[in-house]
Design a protein that fits this description.
By secondary structure, the protein is an alpha/beta fold. The protein folds into two domains: about 5-155, Glycogen Phosphorylase B (Rossmann fold, 3-Layer(aba) Sandwich); about 180-265, no CATH class. The protein has helices at about 15-30, 45-50, 65-80, 90-100, 120-125, 135-145, 165-170, 170-180, 185-190, 210-225, 230-235, 250, and strands at about 5-10, 35-40, 55, 85, 105-110, 130-135, 150-155, 195-200, 235-240, 260-265. The protein has a seven-stranded parallel β-sheet with strand order 3-2-1-4-5-6-7, sandwiched between helices. Strands 9-8-10 form a three-stranded parallel β-sheet, with helices on one face. Helix 3 packs across helix 4. The longest helix has 15 residues, at about 15-30. The two termini are about 40 Å apart. Residues about 200-220 and about 235-250 have low confidence and may be disordered.
Length: about 260
C-alpha cells in the first residue's frame, strides 16, 4: 500500500484546511495510507483525528526551522512515505526539503490567490514536482511566479453534499429559510432592495492584511454597479472585520422591519 503524507502548518481551520482533510479522506478511500502532519496546537489536528485520519503533531515554526525539518525527515523515513503533499507556505518549505532529502516526490497545492513574489521561488521551482491550484486564476499566478506551466494544474474544490443533509433532517426549517435566502445574479440584484448593506468579512484571520479596507472596496465595487435610484435606496453600508465585532445579534435588535442584505466575502 502506498503512503502519502499531507503537511499543513496553518493553526486555523478554514476552507484550505477543510479541503486538505477532505483530500486526505478521499485518498484513503481509494486505497492509499494517509498521514497528516500538522501543528500540535492546531485545530486541524483534532478534526483529522475525529475523521479517523492518522496524524503526526509536528511543530513547524518557520520555513527554515531545523527541528521541524528533522522531525519531518524522521517521519517520512519511519513511515516509508511514498509521496509528500504540502499545503501552506511554511510546510511547503519544510515538507519540500524533507522530501528532497528522502528522495520522495512532492506535490504542492496552492489554495489562495494572494500574489506570489516574483523572482526565484524554490518552493515552486525545486521543492515541488507538481503544483495543484484551486482555480485557473491561481494557476496563472503560480506560472507568473516562475513555475513551469506543464507542471501546474488547476483542480477546483468540490462539494461533499453528504456533509449537508440539512433538508433531510429538518425539512420544515429548510423551507422556512428558503423564503429568506436566494442567490443574486448580479451585484445590483443583490443590493437593489436593501436599506443597509452588511458585509461580513470572513477573511480577517489572515494577519498583515487590512481586510476591513478590502471589505470596503468590495462593497464600493458593488456600489458602482447600482443605478442612482438604488443608491438612494441603500444609502449606507457597514463592514465588519478585525476592527469591529462580528456578532450581529445586538446589531439586528431594534431593527425589525428594516430591509438589509448580508454579504459574505
Amino acid at each position: 500500500m502506498k503512503t502519502v503524507l499531507h503537511t499543513e502548518a496553518s493553526p486555523g481551520l478554514g476552507g484550505q484546511e477543510v479541503r486538505t482533510l477532505n483530500e486526505a479522506r478521499w485518498t484513503a478511500e481509494r486505497g492509499w495510507r494517509v498521514l497528516l502532519a500538522a501543528q500540535p496546537d492546531g485545530r486541524l489536528l483534532d478534526r483529522a483525528r475525529e475523521a479517523g485520519v492518522e496524524t503526526a503533531a509536528i511543530r513547524m515554526r518557520g520555513p527554515l526551522d531545523p527541528l521541524g525539518l528533522a522531525a519531518l525527515v524522521r517521519l517520512i523515513r519511519r513511515e516509508r512515505v511514498d509521496l509528500v503533499h504540502t499545503h501552506s507556505s511554511i510546510d511547503a518549505w519544510l515538507g519540500g526539503m524533507a522530501a528532497r532529502l528522502c528522495r520522495v516526490p512532492v506535490v504542492r497545492t496552492r489554495h489562495v490567490s494572494i500574489a506570489i513574489r516574483r523572482g526565484v521561488n524554490p518552493v515552486y521551482r525545486w521543492l515541488a514536482d507538481r503544483v495543484i491550484t484551486s482555480g485557473e486564476a491561481i494557476r496563472q499566478i503560480v506560472i507568473a511566479a516562475g513555475a513551469p506551466a506543464e507542471r501546474v494544474i488547476a483542480i477546483p474544490a468540490g462539494v461533499n453534499l453528504e456533509a449537508f443533509p440539512f433538508g433531510r433532517r429538518a425539512p420544515d426549517t429548510a423551507r422556512e429559510l428558503a423564503a429568506y435566502l436566494r442567490f443574486a445574479a448580479t451585484p445590483e440584484d443583490c443590493l437593489s432592495e436593501a436599506s443597509l448593506v452588511v458585509l461580513v468579512n470572513t477573511l480577517a484571520c489572515y494577519e498583515a492584511v487590512d481586510w476591513s479596507r478590502a471589505a470596503d472596496a468590495t462593497v464600493l465595487d458593488c456600489w458602482r454597479c447600482l443605478s442612482r435610484s438604488h443608491r438612494t435606496a441603500v444609502g449606507h453600508y457597514l463592514a465588519l472585520g478585525d476592527s469591529q465585532p462580528c456578532d450581529l445579534s445586538e446589531w439586528i435588535e431594534g431593527r425589525a422591519g428594516a430591509k438589509f442584505r448580508l454579504i459574505t466575502s
